[in-house]
Amino acid sequence: MDTSLMPSENAEVVRRAHEALNSGDMDALVALCDKEFRLDMSDRVFNPAVYEGHDGIRRFYSEVRDVWESYVWEPEQLIEAGPDVVALLVSTGRGRGSGVEVERETAIVWSVREGRATRMRFFRHRDEALRASGLDGDREPASPTNGA
After folding, report:
1. Rounded to an integer, what distance in angstroms lies between the CA atom of residue 81 and that of residue 68?
2. In this structure, which of 50, 55, 94, 111 has its CB flanked by the most CB atoms within 10 Å?
């Protein structure tokens, strides 16, 4: 087996976090996150905000569900940057009530310490997430992601 394609522990935490987030399993997501978790969505165009702790995770997801019938943050690549993992995403959603559909490329930088996510920072632009993580965009993914 080619271990260079094996996900690191940090990338695996991020993969599982996206799986929980996309399935709406907030208990599973909270279990992966430190009690002092910080969810920074301040780069959003609408309703920029920062959410703190496990209650913040649940409040964030509730707000998303109020606006979106469905919303998915699907990782295309997970790129390690020290203890952080940059998730390059395709975000898709369908508006609740309006039915409007969106699809865009975004990114999230996850900080993982001792097997637990401590911070998640959303970026509308992938290049900004890579720069914030000290990467120049030429890095290979930590692990291939194919939704499996």
Report:
1. 31
2. 111
